[in-house]
Design a protein that fits this description.
The complex is a heterodimer of chains A (233) and B (214).
Chain A lengths: L1 H11 L1 H5 L4 H33 L3 H13 L2 H12 L4 H24 L3 H9 L4 H35 L8 H10 L2 H29 L20
Chain B lengths: L1 H5 L1 H35 L1 H16 L2 H12 L6 H25 L3 H9 L4 H31 L12 H10 L2 H29 L1 H8 L1
Helix pairs in contact in B: 2-3, 2-5, 2-7, 3-5, 4-5, 5-7, 6-7, 7-9, 8-9
Classes of the chains: A mainly alpha (233), B mainly alpha (214).
Chain lengths: 233, 214
């Protein structure tokens, strides 16, 4: 408990935040890597997932892939890529891209696939092209599930980005690894608290976003369609 | 291969250490989550807050939790207890949701029939609710097994021995084969434990196969 108080006093010291390589800089690094990786991964995985959901091909393969990805230990992937690509931002970013893809893919294809076929057939019968069907029927109806996938991917990446400091000195994870090495426990604990706060803040933002966007009446079933697609890492 | 030949002993040792952390956490999460899931299903007002709470727990990144749990509980950061507690938190977070869904999936008729012929709540839990909840609960347990086995490796960066030690050691010494061996064996353990879950599920729900055969 003594250590917790010291960690809080570290957090309340302005210099901890503003100095070169301070908490503010690392917080922005962490957030920047997270947003960048999720955006990049979404740019590839979402269109692919929507196409798979629309054509209903390869759905079993994608479901298997998403399941298998859960079994791969993130630290193993990170260190293997670290050895292959060397110290630097390349290896963790590549590992994070790979980890973000399965929940994004799963959210996109499951969301589109769950759209009522009658709505799609109706759109087709009034003469909409396939592209129009995707854009103005399937995407709007699938949006909540797609956003759910983005939420899972973001949580996965923000958590794993902490671990990424093991192979490259980026983000808030640096406090944890340098604190462990130098036995600077207040800094170690303060860094841990910051990562937790950032993750909960991001998750809470998604929860608010999804709540404000869903005008349809809440149902208990809806909340369980994407059951926890990420590794807790 | 050369690395493997020289290190079979330590690979086995770390595999045992890995299992000694993962298996207790998985079993503990079952013991904790089943009563919570059952209660959440009976008290409708408790369901949403309970699920929201486990959702928040699940959102916490694991590495910081590996650091904070020992500080708050006053146990050693490199102790097995620390790893088992952290792993149990995540496993329980998945399992509570799954158990709540599982108990909701039990047909109302089955429960009401049991009550009608005079089963006590306790008796009904063991002979109606729990057995009929197994199929849905098993799906959750399989997710727990696979993700727990993978999560154990994170503890190695703070010095808790497991197959993850092969990642940290291999990375520091630049031995690709060591990291690769750790990856492969971790995935293999997850697959084997997953298989055991499937077999146990079959043994515990003989009626499911009888229905299939018909």
């Amino acid at each position: 408990m003594e250590l917790l108080l010291q960690a809080f006093s570290w957090l309340l010291t302005p210099e901890s935040w503003t100095q070169q390589g301070g908490a503010l800089q690392r917080l922005f690094e962490h957030l920047g890597v997270t947003i960048g990786v999720v955006a990049l991964s979404a740019g590839i995985a979402l269109p692919l997932g929507v196409m798979i959901g629309h054509t209903r091909r390869w759905t079993t393969a994608v479901a298997l892939l998403a399941g298998a990805a859960r079994a791969i230990p993130t630290l193993g992937l990170l260190t293997l890529l670290g050895l292959a690509l060397g110290i630097g931002l390349g290896a963790p970013v590549l590992a994070l891209l790979v980890l973000a893809a399965p929940p994004l893919l799963a959210g996109a294809y499951a969301g589109v696939q769950a759209v009522d076929p009658e709505a799609v057939d109706g759109a087709r019968s009034v003469g909409m092209s396939e592209a129009e069907i995707i854009r103005s029927v399937e995407l709007p109806l699938a949006l909540p599930v797609i956003v759910g996938g983005i939420r899972s991917a973001t949580l996965q990446v923000v958590a794993t980005a902490t671990l990424a400091a093991y192979t490259s000195d980026t983000g808030l994870g640096r406090y944890i690894f340098s604190g462990l090495k130098s036995r600077d426990y207040p800094e170690l604990i303060a860094g841990s608290l910051l990562v937790i706060a950032l993750a909960l803040l991001l998750d809470g933002s998604f929860a608010l976003l999804m709540k404000s966007r869903s005008r349809a009446p809440r149902s208990d079933r809806q909340t369980t369609t994407i059951p926890l697609e990420r590794n807790p890492s | 291969m050369k690395w493997l030949n020289q290190n079979v002993g330590s690979l086995l040792e770390l595999t045992v250490a890995h299992l000694a952390l993962a298996v207790p956490a998985i079993l503990l999460s079952l013991v904790i989550a089943v009563p919570i899931g059952w209660t959440a299903q009976r008290l409708r007002w408790a369901r949403d807050p309970a699920l929201a709470l486990v959702g928040v727990l699940y959102a916490i990144p694991s590495l910081p939790l590996f650091v904070l749990v020992p500080v708050v509980l006053g146990i050693g950061i490199r102790s097995s207890a620390n790893a088992i507690i952290v792993l149990t938190v995540y496993a329980t977070a998945i399992m509570v949701r799954s158990a709540a869904d599982a108990f909701s999936s039990v047909p109302l008729e089955a429960r009401m029939s049991a009550t009608a012929i005079g089963y006590s709540t306790w008796h009904r839990f063991w002979s109606v609710d729990l057995p009929l909840a197994i199929p849905v609960m098993l799906a959750g347990l399989r997710v727990v097994v696979v993700s727990t086995v993978s999560l154990v490796t994170v503890g190695s960066v703070i010095g808790i021995p497991s197959l993850g030690t092969l990642f940290t050691d291999g990375f520091q010494r630049g031995i690709v084969a060591e990291v690769a061996a750790g990856l492969i064996v971790t995935v293999l353990i997850a697959l084997v434990l997953d298989g055991i879950c499937i077999l146990a599920g079959r043994a515990l729900t003989p009626w499911a196969r009888a229905a299939e055969a018909r």
